[in-house]
Structures are given as C-alpha cells and as structure tokens.
Amino acid sequence: MKRLSALLLTLTFSSFSAAATDSFKVCWSIYVGWMPWGYAAEQKVVDKWAKKYDLDIEVVQINDYIESINQYTTGEFAACAMTNMDALTIPAAGGVDSTALIVGDFSNGNDGVVLKGYDKLKDIKGQRVNLVELSVSHYLLARGLESVGLSESDVTVVNTSDADMVAVYPTAGISSVATWNPLLSEIMTMPGANKVFDSSQIPGEIIDLLVINTEVLKANPKLGKALTGAWYEIMAMMSAKDKGGVEVRTAMGVASGTDLAGYEAQLASTEMFYTPAAAVAFTNSAALKTTMKNVAEFSFAHGLLGDGAPDAGFIGIETPSGVFGNKANIKFRFDPSYMQMAADGKL
Question: How far apart are alpha carbons 120 and 168 in whole angstroms?
Fold first, then answer.
C-alpha cells in the first residue's frame, strides 16, 4: 500500500462520465484496512447494497497500488482506496476533483522506520534509507527526523519498490528502511531489525480512505449510499467478538497473505473506525485540517503539487472545519455526509 507516484498527471478531461448511470467500478489493493473491500465483494455484500439502489458495482483488486490510483485518476474507476496524501498528490494534483467518501482508519503503527543494528532514530544520521520515494513512508521519515532534530539532508533516500523491500533488507549494505505492513512485519522478524519510529508517534496523519470522483458522486448519490452501506455492514461483521467475527478476520488475513494472528497483529496497529459515528467525529475534528496542512507542505516541498504550484496552498482541501489552501481551486474534499447517514440509520 501507500505508494505515491512521482508522475503528476495533467488532465484536461477525465474519461469517466459524470453523468447519471447505474454501472460503476471501484478498485482497491492489499492493505490491512482495505481487505474489507475484497471480503465485501466476495460475500456479495456490495452486490446486496448495489441491488438496493438499482446499481451494478464491480469491485476490482489491483495488485499495484499506484497503478490503481493512476487508473482512478484517468477515469477507469469511479472510486479507489488510497491514503490522504496520495489522494492529494495524484488525482487532486492532476486536476481530478476527489472526495473522501469513507474515512476507514489511520495508521497507528502500521508504518515504520527500521534500523539494522541500531536502536535509536538519531543513529540514522548519515545512513542510506531504502523506501518508496515520495510515498507516505517518505513523509513518515521526514516527520521522524524532525522529532530528533534532523532533516532529510542528514540521510540519503534510496528509492526502492515496495515489491522489493523485504528482499532488499537482509542484503549487505542495507542499513535502514521505511515501509508499511505487511512488509514491515516481515522485516521485523529478520536479524538486527529495530523499529525506531512508527506512525503511532504521529497518530491520525496517515489516513486510509475510499476516494470517489466528486462529479460522479454528485451525479450519482445512490452510489455513495451503496458503498457506505456495504462498508459499515462489513465493519460490523469483522469487529464482532464472536465466532463469526473470527471467521471474517481469518478470511481477510488469508486473503492478504497471512493468517488470523498476523492480520490481528496488523489491526492492533491500525485505528479502525468500525462505526460511522467514530469516522464522522474524526473527520469533523479541527485536527484533520492541520494534518492536511502538514501533508500539503511536505508535498509542495517535494514538488508533488505540480510544476505550476506556487505554494503549499495551491490546491484547496475542504474539511468540515474549514478549507486549507486556495478556495477557488478545491480539488480534495472530506465529506462526512454519507458516513453521517450511516450513523443515523438513513441509508
């Protein structure tokens, strides 16, 4: 998960029609907080909610996370699972007005910086750090360095594919990596691995979302209702403490390449919003606007808002507590209204 492309798409149009229709495609990729989409599709929960609103919704797993976002950005999908940072720097920066329909969770330890043979983050000074460049791992590293009085100039970032991260770590000459689960968990089982900083130290900043094309949502509000309804039905199933809940979490664990214990270990470092009320409260908080300001500033400093961006506020980001950035250029929105409908039992 959580790979953001250096490719910034300048789009003059999207191939996805915003006109009212009844057939849609949604994409997701493997990550602890997004496994519910695969389960919801497999168990026909999405089909059930689609039928309720006379829709056809196809849920598609894409193995390459960044490719899923690029396909969403070019209009191949109406909605896609992605992080808050990637939503800003790929579709929004590419001119595609996008809305966070469902705020599913935030990373609370699922992303980390690992040193080989050292146990303090300050020891990273002068080292090469293998990570997916310009991703939330890069953001995490920058935030960690700030916390110990260092900056990116004190390390050398080595761009490394998430597909290669586990294989790269044990090789000679590799001393530090920044990555996410399940890769992080695998690396932590290897000799000399010490996690020196993780996302639990910046809670609420790496947020996992279902992002939908704003124009498509406006033209097809029933799609927003169907997707939100399906999501919270699965949330209730997977959070259950009974045998049924164990079976759901086991299935998600196996589908993600681990088992029940492995999946629950990842859930333990994820702040899942199992109820819509919890998600709405998080989305409505003033802290969200501050988080997006931090993300925008990091993104601007790394050239991720486009060549024409004069400052971090070039792209307007709308949250319930206010807009960060240019109100005349809002391209990323946090809209809790559908989650509120779920909380109120009005879907």
Answer: 21
- End-to-end Cα separation, the chain, in angstroms: 30
pLDDT of residue 66: 84
| 47-49-52 Cα angle (round to 5) | 110
3-class SS at 334?
strand
* pTM for this model (two decimals): 0.89
How would you class 50 by CB atoms within 10 Å of its CB: exposed for 0-12, middle for 13-18, buried for 19 or more?
buried
Instruction: Return the residue matching tokens 């808050």.
Output: 84
Q: What is the pLDDT of residue 19?
A: 55
Backbone angles phi, psi at 177, to 5 degrees: -140, 155
Q: CA-CA distance, 95 to 14, in Å (whole number)?
A: 9
Distance CA(136)–CA(84), nearest Å, equals 9
Classify 7 as helix, strand or coil: coil
Name the 3-class secondary structure at 99.
strand
Residues 6+ apart with CB under 8 A from 178: 111, 112, 113, 114, 129, 130, 131, 137, 138, 140, 141
Pairing between β-strand 316-319 and β-strand 322-324 as defined by DSSP bridges = antiparallel
Give the model's pLDDT for residue 20: 58
Regions of the chain short of the pLDDT cut 70:
1-21
| Total residues found in the chain within this entry | 347
